[in-house]
Request: fold
Amino acid sequence: MRNIMEVEKKKGINGIRELDTSRKFRYKVTIVGDGRVGKTTLIMKYTQGSFKKEYIKTLGAQFYTYDKEINNDKIRLMFWDIAGQDKFHFLRPNFFKNSRAAIIVYSLEENEFGRESFNHITYWYKLLTKYCGEIPIVVFANKVDLVDETKINDSSIQDIVKKNSFLGYYKTSAKTGKGVTQAFNAIIEALNYKTLNSE
Ligand SMILES: Nc1nc2c(ncn2[C@@H]2O[C@H](COP(=O)(O)OP(=O)(O)O)[C@@H](O)[C@H]2O)c(=O)[nH]1
Ligand SMILES: [Mg+2]
Reply:
């Protein structure tokens, strides 16, 4: 897949056309995790509402187009999100197709729901590798505002990160915004868009 398109020439100061050297890149980033862990809220927090949302009924999916400029290059991120809560079995291979990176979200809540969402990380990982192969994956441990951060035992998530070669994990709160930018930046770094020039 070609990611690079040269932007059309634009008019310079004297009306003479100058070459705009900025380039355009598009990436699909898939976000998975149990229902209600905060996937949609995280996207909204990160993009501050400056996204365009599309709904694909047949896939049980919605995606958010978010544009960002990095070093003069125009980066378009397409966050693919699960629509609804309990319809995971409707997810089709097309939901995952052409993902360049993925985020697995779980909740740090200290209850059955939180623990389940943690135990399901491997399930989501298996689905991702089945349909996407080995793509960069970052884990978001969300809802950190609901727990005492000093009491979090990181060892079990660290084991999973290591075992599955995830890029890392970030504690986030879509509610307070804590860690959110940092976590999404890790994804953008993972896309390593500069090196794709040679594709
Ligand atoms: N306290 C807290 N609530 C959150 C956080 N993220 C999401 N929520 C809430 O959790 C519920 C589910 O969030 P949602 O984004 O719809 O989850 P999704 O099903 O994974 O997309 C909503 O009521 C959110 O307001 C968070 O970081 N902290
Ligand atoms: Mg959602």
The chain has six helices and ten strands. The two ends are 8 Å apart (CA to CA). The pocket of guanosine-5'-diphosphate (ligand 1) is lined by residues 33, 35-41, 85, 142-143, 145-146, 173-175 (CB under 6 Å).
